[in-house]
Amino acid sequence: MRSGLILALGAISLTTGCVVYTDDHHEPEPPQYVNYTPYVSWAESGCYYDDYNHDFVWWFETEIFDDNGRQDIVGVWADVYSVHGNLVDSFELYNETADPDVYFSDWLQYSTNLDCYNDGYEVDIVAYDTFDTYDAVTIYPYTY
């Protein structure tokens, strides 16, 4: 009789259609993006007299690396400050050189607020990436 009861209970449990789900299924975590700060490897600046234009030319040059790739760099600037720390002028540097990591620009002095005979400037070369992280170096331009 006991075995018949067990078989009957087993048959009843199979016919109830009860389904049990477990909560062991977890979605995989999406990969985390790591943003690396751009790195200013070196920078130079200065001015020289250009006979063709009969004016001084200011130039700014730097090499920038970013472990996220070159496309992560969204802006490179040269910010020129006076000896008193006041911003005198800002210049965007462009990646249009033979070396893809070098940024450069040059400007005729008459189009700037700079004076090639002033040796009191400091230039901050600043590289920004997509997430507004940046690296900067301060240099002193070559002047007359």
Q: Total number of β-strand segments?
A: 7
Question: What are the low-pLDDT stretches, counting only 5+ consecutive residues below 50?
Answer: none
Helix content: under 10%
**Span of the ends, CA to CA:** 113 Å
* Largest sheet report: 4 strands, antiparallel
At the fold tier of CATH, the topology name is: Immunoglobulin-like
CATH class: Mainly Beta
Mean pLDDT: 89
N-to-C order of helices and strands: HEEEEEEE
Summarize the structure.
The chain has 144 residues and is mainly β. The chain is 10% helix and 42% strand. The chain has one helix and seven strands.
Give a structural overview:
This protein has 144 residues and is mainly beta. The protein has one domain: Immunoglobulins (Immunoglobulin-like, Sandwich), CATH 2.60.40. It is built from one helix and seven strands. The strands form two sheets. A four-stranded antiparallel β-sheet has the order 4-3-6-7, with no helix packed on it. Strands 1-2-5 form a three-stranded antiparallel β-sheet, with no helix packed on it. Strand 6 and strand 7 form a beta hairpin. It is elongated, with a radius of gyration of 33 Å. The termini are far apart.
